[in-house]
Specification:
Number of domains: 1
Radius of gyration: 33 Å
Number of strands: 0
Order of helices and strands: HH
Helix content: over 70%
Strand content: under 5%
Oligomer: single chain
């Protein structure tokens, strides 16, 4: 956690601990727990984003390989068809 944020939290905690403060300590504690939960959720989201980015990259490579294989098979099929057409003309 950056030093500036820690100082801000310390100053806020000092203000909240004073007598007659509008914001009670329990409210502050609840907000701290909420911030911690949000921070954890954000970190989890970042991990999931990284995992999914890796998965997308892997799948993109696989799609490119499959397209290349399909192109190769298509070329071979065209060549076979041309050969059959040529044989058919020669046999007539």
């Amino acid at each position: 956690m950056p030093r500036r944020v820690m100082i801000t939290f310390a100053a806020l905690a000092a203000l909240l601990s004073c007598a007659g403060c509008i914001v009670t300590t329990s409210t502050y504690d609840a907000k701290v727990r909420e911030v911690d939960a949000l921070r954890d959720a954000y970190a989890s989201s970042n991990r999931e984003t990284s995992r999914l980015a890796g998965e997308v990259e892997t799948l993109s490579k696989k799609v490119a390989e499959e397209k290349a294989a399909l192109q190769e098979l298509s070329s071979r099929a065209d060549a076979c068809e041309a050969g059959r057409t040529r044989e058919k003309r020669e046999s007539e």
